Amino acid sequence: MQPRDLLRSRPEGLYCPPGDFFIDPVRPVARALVTHGHADHARAGHGSVLATRETLDIMALRYGEDFAGATQEAALGETVSIDGVRVTFHPAGHVLGSAQIAVEAGGTRIVASGDYKRSTDPTCAAFEPVPCDVFITEATFALPVFIHSNAEEEIGHLLTSVRRFPERTHIVGAYALGKAQRVIALLRKAGYSETVFIHGALVKLCAYYEGVGVSLGPLQPATVEEDGAAPPAGAIVVAPPAATDDRWSRRFADPLSCFASGWMRIRQRARQRGVELPLIISDHADWGELTDTIREMGAAEVWVTHGREEALVRWCELNGIAAKPLHIAGYEDEAE
Q: pTM for this structure?
């Protein structure tokens, strides 16, 4: 079977004609396979959803129990048949429950990675290389300038700042699903045992992580209403990035703005956002990890989606690998 007959790009997303399903569709469809719980990949309103248990749970938390007509759990490493197409979910290392989806029929295997990273993350299973004929890779940070720092070292910078400025509340902007929990887990790994204060948007997701065995230590809502006590000076507060820019953050004691993102490699972005302490912590692969992964997967052909597609396509061509951009609209990368 030719790869384009097994998976092809349509306005709704990646479509498998023989299996009659979509992978991470950006609009409601009858049958969806979902790689992970971020809102640009996991949307409500599908007729049926096949995903890992964690992704299904996260979708229910975010959209309500009736987010799809029907759901089915995909166990990592187990193959299911959909109208003769073999489908297997493998760890992607992006966030809790994230998976690559291997689609196989007629002697051809295509692996759709969704989003992935190769660095260590105590909150989710590590990326698992899957040999394939075609590898569909993200390209969020697909430019040579993007070389992510060691996350543990970046957390060290945060703790150094907390010790240096004990009179200031450190507010860390971190995406609500995955990044926030990773930052907290890395703080614990570094020996920080104090209470971490969290924005209300993180409460349910952090409780879910704890419920499935990801230890986050003592947490407390960062309440600053009239009937609640604000976190003490010197505390660490974790909040969605948007909250660090509004009046909510200015209620704390001399707030020091931090932002955990791969985009913090670009200092101009940090300055534009008023970030005093940029933390280069990413849940996506950097340039070296992207190119190393392509080599490791051993695919004869690479399809590139959502990000800096042209640069990665060009790298593949220069290294003798057939490649093309998919130009699928609807995936976001700014929230990283």
A: 0.94
